[in-house]
Give the backbone structure.
Amino acid sequence: MLFVINLFQIKRKMKTSIYYISLLFTIIISTSTFSQSSDWFLLPDGLGLSNQLEYSYNVDNKIEIFENWLTLDYNKNIFSAGLRFEAFQPNDPDPSISRGKVRYADIAYKYFAVDIGDVEEGLNITVGNFYKLFGRGLILKSYEDRNIRVDNNLLGVKVEANYLSFTLAALSGSASNSINERQDIIHAVDLQYNGFDFVKLGTTFASNQPEIDGTARTTLASARIQPTIWNFDGYAEYGIKSNKDIQSQIFKDDEWKIGEAFYGSLNFYYDMFSIVGEYKYYDNYAFTSNDGTIFYNTAPSLRKEYTYQLLNRHPSPLDQSNEEGYSLEANFNLSDATSFIANYGITQTLPASSYYQRVNNFSLPITTQLKEVYLQATHNWDESFTTIAAFGYNEELSTNTKNFTPILENKFYFDDINTIKVVLEHQQTENLSTDEKYYDDVIAIEYLRSPNFNVSVVTEIQTKEPEAGKTVRKVWSFIQFGYKLGNHSDLSLLIGSRQAGNICIGGICRYEPAFQGIEFKILTRL
């Protein structure tokens, strides 16, 4: 990695004092945390603090990114309040992530709440910014995930009440759009009954209030049931969507629905065996702001989350308007030393008779968006050696590829403190559009000294043959250090290069361009 030599010769000139102030603050907090075993540094009762800092410098394109989130929370009796100070200089270059915050420093999240009563009979009122999830997110999922840079928090009022086995939540708020303006307003209410031992019942209603006068509201409603019988746990939710403009303009008032959705899951556990089945049907059910830049709902994607690098290389983003599919996963523990996992999932587009195609005047055939198979076997040879063998296969429509991925992972436990992990991944890819075939290999070696230190070296080699007899290889490699500073601070330093790719969680994806440089992260919680 010759670029490392040049990397340390680069003069990192920060463009404003925001970076220096935030970095200095983080170092002070982290150093204090390291010495927290003594009594000289103690936060006041009820006060909580967390700070997350991320800094990277890309040598290739000379891009410097700094991001910092500082959160303060305070609780006193029935009252609580908090704020989050964000500083971006600049923020992620992807406009869908930066939301107009190219250089930004402000209190982006603040709230005040009153909590009266208890869990059985109580009332909570929150004013300011807040997050909320109803059911499994079929109608409303307001949340933050910094790994994929999702933050659709609402600014407004939220009321939650519990009484006689009923739980009621009502809210009214607005989320930031792509230029960091809050325009559309969403109103939502959710009611759940918990009075039965074997089943929970709930219903949700939500509508948006567009800023543009004369534009009809979009309204969603759903009903759900969560039964628990013997070794079975289930969940089912059905929802409908309506909009008077579309009903009159597209369907000539012959239909009162413009979309519908269903999600169901069933878990079965017995002794050493378990199986989980899920089904989804999302027909024109995306719930967005008037300009389409905010998603209020994020339904279950039924996409398996992988811990291995190459299995995530060809993701399939969630489409809440045009999906039908199912997923099955079985787990079997043959013994205390041996276990197996088998997973199969498929997602297809909807037929021409669907609301989605009729609303958009399409007439397209059903196609497979995603088909995936995953098999894994784990065996503990003894207390000091564990092997994991896995195999993944997927067909993915957005990149139109077919991928075969065998994986071998070995863990060597020298004692309770020292561990070495070696992961070998190989992926054979076929591009169905061009008939091109190529393969990637990844080797990752990690040393862990529990609980304070770890270091890993990761190398990826991609081999292609764009022309017969001409082989082209590309290599990416990085070394990453991790260290726990005191009881509440985690530091991470990455030096090297990595291939461009997507980070996907729950079907929501964030594209990361190719990177060569240095990346530093520190997370502090007090």
Summary: Residues 121-300 form one domain. The chain has five helices and 30 strands. The longest helix spans residues 18-34.
